C-alpha cells in the first residue's frame, strides 16, 4: 500500500439523528424549492439521471482501521495509506461539487433587493454546503495531481470546474459560475487532519468566495471544524463546531454563525446559532437551526423575548441522562438527540435539507445529488478531458462493487504519479496547473487559487496523462 497517499477525511460526515421531523407552524418560507422524493430530472423528456449506484456499499466489518492509525495519535494525517474498502466511490473533487446541491439558495439571494435578506440566504447556503456530510462514513478517493472534475447543470443554471492543483500539500481548487452571469462561487481547500486516539479532527483550511454579480457583492467565509468520533470502536458519528464568519465585503454586513459542539449531554448536537449585524454592528437578524435539518431567521427582539420566556417555563430542562455524555470511557457514544428544531413564532424558514432516498444507507449514505456525480451521461465521454474523475478506473471499479480491481488500479495510478514526479525532479521541471493559478483573492488579500478560464472551450490536447 502506498505510503504517499493523503488521507482525505475532511469532507467525511458520519452518524446523526434519524429525525427530520420539523414543525413549520408560524414560519414564513424563504426556501421555496419544492422537496421531491429524489426522482431524477429529465433531459429532453427522455434521459433521466440515475437514482441508484450500480452496486451496493461494500461491508467493512472485517476491516480494522486501528492497525493503520495506532501510531499516529496527535499527528497530522498527511501521508497515511488507507485500504480502498474505507473509500466511497467519489473523488474529493466530486465531494467538493456537493456544495452546489442547494444552488437554488444562491439564485434566491440574487433575486432579493435587501442586503440583509441576501445575507441570511447566503448564510443558509453556507450551512447547506456541509449538510451532505451527514452520515457519510466513507472517505473520498484522493485526487491525483492534475485530476479535474466538471459539473454542468443547466436545470440549476450553473457549471463548475475543479482541479487538484497541489499534491504536497494536497490542495483542491474549484470555480462555479452561473449560466446567466448571476454569480460566481469559488475557493481552494487544504484539509488538515489529526488523529486523537478515538477521533479524527479535520480543519478545512481555505476560503469560500461567493460573488453576486448583479449586486456587485462578494461574500467570504471558511467552513467549520469537523470531528469524526469512534474511528476505532463503536458507532461512527460526526459533529461540526467552530465559528463561521461570513463577510459582505461590499456593505460591511457580517453574519457570525456558531456551530455548537455536542456538549456534555449532547443537547447542542448539530445546532447552529448566530446573528447578522450591519457595519455599525447592530444586530439585524438571528439565525438558528441544525446543519442536519434546517435553518431559520427571526427578529433579534423576538428571539430574546422567546428565550426569556423559555427560561421562565423551564425550557432548558436539565433532567438529562448523564450516560449520554459525549465522553465515554471506551467509545464516544453518540448522544441521543434531545429534540428537533423548535421554531420560534415569527421565524422565516431559510433552508430545509432534502430527504435522502430510501436506499441511501446501502449506497454509502449518498444523497440523490451525490448518486449522480460519477455518472457518465450520454455523449459526455467524448467531451470530457482525459483527466476527469469519471474516467478514473479505480473509482469506476469501486462503484461497480469490484474492490479487488479498485485496489489494484488505485496502486497503479499512485505509482504512475510517483514515477511522473521522479521524472520531473530528474529534469528539474515544476508541475504546471492547467486551469487555475496561484494568486491573491481580491476581496481578502489572501493567497488563493484562481480560475484562469478556457476550460469550457473544450481544447484538451495538452492535458496530462494521469490514468
Question: What does this 3D model show about the protein?
Answer:
- The protein has 467 residues and is an alpha+beta fold.
- It contains eight helices and 21 strands.
- It has helices at residues 66-69, 92-97, 104-111, 115-128, 300-312, 368-371, 393-399, 403-426, and strands spanning 28-29, 42-43, 47-48, 87-91, 139-141, 148-153, 158-166, 171-178, 183-195, 199-205, 208-212, 217-221, 225-229, 237-248, 254-259, 271-277, 283-290, 294-298, 348-352, 436-440, 447-451.
- Strands 9-10-13-14-12-11 form a six-stranded antiparallel β-barrel. Strands 2-3 form a two-stranded antiparallel ribbon. A two-stranded parallel sheet has the order 4-5.
- A hairpin with a 3-residue loop joins β17 (283-290) and β18 (294-298).
- The longest helix is centred in the last third of the chain and has 24 residues, at 403-426.
- The radius of gyration is 22 Å and the shape is globular.
- 43% of the residues are buried.
- The model is unreliable at 1-27, 32-41 and 316-329 (pLDDT under 50).
TL;DR of this structure?
With 467 residues, this protein is α+β, with helices and mostly antiparallel strands. The chain contains 8 helices and 21 strands.
Keywords:
alpha+beta, disordered N terminus, six-stranded antiparallel β-barrel, 467 residues, two-stranded antiparallel sheet
Map the helices and strands:
Blueprint: E1 28-29, E2 42-43, E3 47-48, H1 66-69, E4 87-91, H2 92-97, H3 104-111, H4 115-128, E5 139-141, E6 148-153, E7 158-166, E8 171-178, E9 183-195, E10 199-205, E11 208-212, E12 217-221, E13 225-229, E14 237-248, E15 254-259, E16 271-277, E17 283-290, E18 294-298, H5 300-312, E19 348-352, H6 368-371, H7 393-399, H8 403-426, E20 436-440, E21 447-451
Parallel strand pairs: 1-19, 4-5
Antiparallel strand pairs: 2-3, 6-7, 7-8, 8-9, 9-10, 9-11, 10-13, 11-12, 12-14, 13-14, 14-15, 15-16, 16-17, 17-18, 18-19, 20-21
